[in-house]
Amino acid sequence: MIVKRYMTANPVTITKDASVEEAIQLMKTRFIRHLPVVDGDKLVGWITDANLRGALFPSMLEDLTIEDVMIHDPIAVEASESIEAAARLLVENRIGGMPVLENGELVGVITVIDLLNAFLIMLGILQSSSRIDVKPGTSQGAIDSISSIIEKENGEIISVCLVPQKSGVGQIYSFRLGRCDAEKIVEELEKEGHKVVSYSTC
């Protein structure tokens, strides 16, 4: 899954010569919190609502332009990069969004909300589904054993993830399935020595 698939293409932009007030109004009317700053076709900066809030009062006292308050060397990501890599960049740098580049040109913007949507799709959470959280009865071939039981009961596995646990608690796997009779699968899992921690259908 790559950034290009989940970014906002053809983003709203602003020029470096625009005023702070213009940027505030543009963000307000377009319901956005980030703006790539361009000079012609070239990305030259990045502005956020936080930048603008900090610059609003000073801009009333002097003629500040976006170039005066923008981030001049913004963190950016390539359109071909994975969404996992993009997520790491946002988390490590504590930012809410960034421009997306392709061959050096601005092609989009990706935000925390875009990445959250991508991960929800990846995990199958947005579709009608069932979830079973299982603590394996054995450490050897645990996922294969659980998966084979689910498939035997006609369960369709959408995704599997390891649920973070405190040290020494043991591993718990969360299986996201196509909507199904989870109770029957739970019964079969427990017959085989696996502990079902929780399950649900939505």
Task: Give short descriptive properties of this protein.
202 residues; alpha+beta; CBS-domain; 2 domains; four-stranded mixed sheet
Describe this structure in words.
By secondary structure, the chain is of the alpha+beta class. Helices cover 38% and strands 30% of the residues. The chain contains eight helices and eleven strands. The strands form three sheets. The protein has a four-stranded mixed sheet with strand order 1-7-6-5. It has a four-stranded antiparallel sheet with strand order 9-10-8-11, with helices on one face. Strand 3 and strand 4 form a beta hairpin. Helix 2 (20-30) packs antiparallel against helix 3 (49-61). It is elongated. It starts with a helix and ends with a strand.
